[in-house]
Write a structure and sequence with these properties.
Radius of gyration: 15 Å
Structural class: mainly alpha
Shape: elongated
Number of helices: 3
Order of helices and strands: HHH
Distance between the termini: 25 Å
Largest sheet: none
Length: 49
């Protein structure tokens, strides 16, 4: 997931100013970190179901 975020930021770098890039990074991390945490906390028993 982290690699995808870096790719997005790199692609947008030529279109956004530094403050805009910082805000984009904040928003992406804020909105996607919950998704990443949920995936990491799945117990083995849930995978077996």
């Amino acid at each position: 997931m982290e690699e995808k975020l870096v790719n997005i930021l790199n692609e947008m770098a030529e279109y956004l100013s530094v403050p805009q890039m910082k805000k984009l990074q904040e928003v992406l991390l804020k909105n996607l970190s919950g998704t990443m945490a949920q995936k990491e906390n799945i117990e083995n028993a849930e995978y077996l179901r």
